[in-house]
Amino acid sequence: MKANIFGAVILCAISLTQGSEYNYSYDNNEICIDVKMDVLFTLSNGKEVVKFDGNNFTVKSGDCATTGEYQAVLTLTNSNEDLLALTFNVNTDLSVNMSSMFTFAPFEFFPGTPIATTTNLLDTGDLILGNYTQLYQCLSPQRMTLNGVLEGTTYTLFMDMSSVQIQAFNIENGTISTDVFACSADQMTTVAQETTKATSEPTKQTTETSASTVTTVVPSTETTVLPSNETTEKTTVGPSNVTTEGPTTEPITVPPTTAPAPAFPPRSTYEVMEKSKACLVMAGRFQLEVTYTTQKNKTVKTIVNVPVSSNVTVTGKCASGNDTESSLKITPKDDADIDSLTFNFKIMDGKASIESWMAELKELNHTVNETVMLTSPKLYYKCEKGGNFSDDILALKYKELQVQAFNVENGNFSETGFDCPADAPDEPAPGKPPVVTYTATGGNKTCVVFKGSIQFHIPYVSTKGNTTAVISVPVKTNTTGDCNMTMNGLYTQMLSISFYETWKLNLYFSSNKKQTTDLLTADAGVANYDISQIELTYDYNNNLFSDVDDSVVGKTEMVTTNQTFLSTSASKSYMCSKDTTFTLNQNGLSMVTKDLQFQAFRTTNTTDFDAATECAGDEDTNSIVPIAVGAALAGLVIIVLIAYLIGRKRSRSGYEQV
């Protein structure tokens, strides 16, 4: 992508060849996280672009994964004190993925931007790093994209990486693994080069299709020659006409035997109507993938888009009364590769399901009899990230899916929906919530800094009765705040942490004195402050509450508690390493923090804490150390005296015998 499509450009650095290395060590100075890469960052607000390379960052902090732990974190910072957090998670199949979050203040990069709070940009797709015992390596160019919105402006950060080497787990004695996981781009390049060397003449390409508009994809089980994915790229940066050239290789002239799959069509809504109202609704973006064998005994996949709702006729059967079956049929109005697409729904064991579905194409009629369990007949089923319903021959690929085949009221989906497993939020590993630093900024000051791990103990109704879930705040959050407000007549500052799409935690810090002016100023007389109010908004998502009863799925709750928690002076922070519990209501809902430290009413733009007021538990722990040392020294003195006296006695006794 050429940078000048955004308009004006601010040039900071454009080098892709400046290698950067970041690592973090245990207390014994043995490396536990090792990251090396050539990286160029491109930050845009939709109009302007700023570029900077990896040498702008240094390691700020980290969290090593010890034995039995499945998450590691490396946090980088730059001269603006922006934060780039790289989080490494071990999945259930022992594979590792890396997510990234960039926390920055837009006005630092884009002059003229109104001074506002910092914002977080989150990656749109994690990087897969292979097995947790392996070293990840990728010489080929690759990109991570991070997005975020602040006050109506969308910010995008591209991380263009090459020569990447990463290991965050199982680094033994400070030495990285010799077992290397190569990225798919490197694997494809290697296969292409080896195949080219082994072939003395160009490979002839044969492509067979069942219809002219269908894309044909030959599976990788056949011997294919792939093109190089490295090309010469020139990027023009701003009015200075400075250009940079990426790596070049001799192109492989053998044509590819695969074609890219077509893009998904726009989102459409298909409705079965009854008495002028929709009684069965299915929405999303859909493709059909057909696998078949040609006359030359080749396995071929064809992909075709399902026509949008404006180009089809929808018919079917709605369930009424005690009916347990319904159906939806999509028939294109004009000639298309699909003649019809039919879905049969049924209530089975108290759940709505797709009992079967069938596609009629030009050269194939096939029914998929694989039952797909959805959710309660009273709810709609949704799957934003996408998936497929399939067998060995036919697959319906979907994105942004919503479907309700029973109990549709007033032609609309029910108020609450049931999330598919693919939409499950990225929760921290059990038992180890991440320690994260959150900030609220106003003007050019960072007025609130809050650091710690946060968990909520939330009572709910499960399928087996009343129980409690422990939900942790993840690494990926969006943080805002207010540095100049009043509450109950007191000067107040607020930190707001948003996560899991709909969850929000608001923490209010109030001074000990009544306000005397409308605005908080240096002479306002704030001497002490405390956490004066905690607000939590959450919903009963079936992925976070796995056995939640259907009656409360999607139900949103908000709890507010007004108390005085953890007081300290305005010139100090508050710190408590042990578990600290905040009771949010009388029904057992509570917030638990660990490794907590916070400071409000700050007047600098750093995230460094001032001297801390420690909680009672930490003070007791700290006092044990000097007591133990003193006791040990006293014991040592006594032992020396006893040894001295025994020695004197033996010496005298020996003299008398002589």
Structural summary, described in words:
By secondary structure, the chain is mainly beta. It has 4 domains: 3-198, Porin (Beta Barrel), CATH 2.40.160.110; 268-423, Porin, CATH 2.40.160.110; 436-614, Porin, CATH 2.40.160; 620-652. The chain is built from 2 helices and 42 strands. Strands 1, 2, 3, 4, 5, 6, 7, 8, 9, 10, 11, 12, 13 and 14 form a 14-stranded mixed sheet that branches. Strands 15, 18, 19, 20, 27, 28, 29 and 30 form an 8-stranded mixed sheet that branches. Strands 31, 32, 33, 39, 40, 41 and 42 form a 7-stranded mixed sheet that branches. Strand 7 and strand 8 (95-104) form a beta hairpin. It is globular. Residues 1-18, 194-259, 620-629 and 651-658 have low confidence and may be disordered.
Q: What are the salient characteristics of this protein?
A:
single chain, 658 residues, mainly beta, Porin, 14-stranded mixed beta sheet, eight-stranded mixed beta sheet, 2 helices, globular, disordered N terminus
